[in-house]
Specification:
single chain; 473 residues; alpha/beta; OB fold (Dihydrolipoamide Acetyltransferase, E2P); six-stranded parallel sheet; 35% helix; globular; binds S-adenosyl-L-homocysteine; binds iron/sulfur cluster; binds FE3-S4 cluster
Length: 473
């Protein structure tokens, strides 16, 4: 029995380490020693951007470098988004456009992954229409990417893989990450969503809500601060339900306090906060924080109680506004942003106008606005939807015009104030330095390159719509 004594077994290795080495060998053979190149296209939200950083981390461990030039790529990978029909159509178009390149470069590996590939119909459509795509995998099997890539390469077959119930519930720690920026970083604290808003596909393609252990988040966060990241955004579809299923005495406010206690010169943000779960404790934690941004992305979706109910959002206009009032009282300079859906099935013009009145009442810094897009398999997709698309677009324009006025007047009010700005780089158009305030508003100002990647105090001198111009103090 001695051979089974766990103490005598070798150190556990990363389960994918074997495949990473094998892929590296295979690619080195194919490229006769030259470095293989990968091109990763990312669609969708920050969650997908964070996943792409893990994919790139795994690719780097497999010996790949990165390129933006498809002619030079040995592997082209599309990390897809399923949230609206428009996003999906772009993916089909862009994958289809590779047919000719693949004909000229037969050894090119084309891969499609991400949220869309957890939808059976979408992955089937890729299988049927694009025979040159050799690797397709969904979000739930992302951690097995090296193994799947190995199977496609070594066995020279098409590989299609999606999550099952078990993988749905899993969190895999320890994947390598290759971050895009040097000042801003994404940090996923939870995966999935249990809310099932009636219009939304995300719970179907991202699976059930699950939180990372606070220790794992803290360790990654400490590493980011030590590496000099200055702006860290905690990610989750609904960060306010962080920790619910961990069976430990920790919630999102607790996690924020734990991270905020880490010393350093940085800013801490988070998204997305679902209004039904945003608490006074969260606002109080923000107000008391040393590093927590005075910015809250609190998507309202609609200002009409009937529509909110049909959306299954779990709050009313009044409850939302009461929360905003509390937040503004505790954090007077709070910057609020939101997502809005226009033209939900059955929404009337009068109901839409309630959304317009709400955005006026709140005075958002900026908005992400969308025309409702039916998603197969969601409850809203079965509702009668009589308003023509052209009319919905006109409503969207009306909403955006209103928001522009609100943003312009907010920006005008900034002139003369001084903001602490995290300098991100130089604007290619104007040549000016560009950065963001604590409230996530863009500021341009003249200055030297040494300032990039640091905080600087900038006095606002003028405002153009929603962009501010300033000068170093
Ligand atoms: N978890 C986040 C949102 C993630 S999706 C939240 O609850 O706020 C980002 C945004 O896309 C949503 O806030 C919503 O405004 C929009 N969206 C989602 N499904 C949509 C659909 N079917 N049509 C149009 N917009 C949609
Ligand atoms: Fe979609 Fe609602 Fe979940 Fe956000 S909270 S991801 S809108 S189901
Ligand atoms: Fe899209 Fe998936 Fe994000 S569907 S919005 S990329 S979670």
């Amino acid at each position: 029995m001695a051979a089974n004594n766990p103490e005598r077994l070798p150190e556990p290795q990363h389960p994918q380490a074997f495949y990473m080495k094998e892929v590296a060998k295979l690619m080195a053979d194919r490229r006769r020693g030259a470095v293989p190149m990968a091109l990763v296209h990312t669609y969708g939200c920050q969650q997908n951007a964070a996943d792409s950083e893990k994919i790139k981390g795994m690719l780097a461990q497999m010996g790949f470098s990165f390129t933006d030039d498809r002619e030079r790529a040995d592997l082209i990978l599309f990390n897809t988004c399923a949230v609206r029909g428009h996003a999906e159509n772009r993916v089909f178009g862009n994958v289809g456009a590779l047919k000719e390149l693949k004909r000229r470069h037969p050894s090119l590996v084309v891969s499609v992954c991400g949220c869309m590939m957890e939808e059976k119909q979408a992955s089937e459509r890729i299988r049927r229409k694009f025979p040159f795509v050799s690797l397709v995998f969904g979000t739930h099997v992302l951690h097995r990417f090296p193994e799947l890539l190995w199977a496609a390469l070594a066995e020279n077959r098409r590989v299609f893989e999606r999550g099952d119930e078990q993988e749905d519930a899993r969190i895999v720690e320890g994947l390598p990450t290759r971050r895009g920026g040097k000042t801003r970083a994404w940090l996923t604290v939870m995966y999935g969503c249990d809310n099932f808003c009636s219009y939304c596909i995300v719970p179907y393609v991202r699976g059930r809500e699950r939180s990372r252990q606070p220790e794992a988040v803290l360790e990654e966060f400490r590493g980011l601060v030590a590496d000099g990241y200055k702006d860290v955004t905690l990610l989750g579809q609904n960060v306010n339900s962080y920790g619910r299923k961990l069976g430990r005495p920790v919630n999102f406010s607790g996690l924020l306090r734990m991270l905020d206690a880490v010393d350093g010169d940085y800013r801490l943000r988070f998204m997305t906060s679902h209004p039904k779960d945003a608490t006074h404790e969260l606002i109080d934690t923000m107000a008391a924080g040393r590093h927590i941004s005075r910015h809250l992305h609190l998507p309202v979706q609609s200002g009409s109680n009937r529509v909110l109910k049909a959306m299954n959002r779990g709050y009313t206009r009044e409850k939302y506004l009461a929360l905003v009032e509390y937040a503004r009282k505790k954090i007077p300079d709070l910057s609020l942003t939101s997502d809005i859906i226009v033209g939900f099935p059955g929404e009337t013009y009068e109901e839409f106008r309630e959304t317009v009145s709400l955005i006026r009442q709140v005075g958002y810094t900026s908005l992400f606005t969308f025309v409702y897009s039916p998603r197969e398999g969601t409850r809203a997709a079965q509702l009668p939807d009589p308003v023509p698309a052209a009319e919905k677009s006109a409503w969207l324009q009306e909403l955006c015009a209103e928001q522009e006025k609100i943003a312009a007047s907010r920006c005008a009010g900034e002139v003369g104030r001084t903001h602490r700005v995290l300098v991100e780089g130089r604007s290619p158009k104007s040549g000016l330095l560009t950065g963001r305030t604590d409230g996530n508003v863009i500021v341009n100002f003249p200055g030297r390159d040494e300032t990039v990647g640091r905080f600087a105090d900038v006095k606002i001198t003028s405002a153009r719509d929603w962009i501010l111009d300033g000068e170093l103090v």
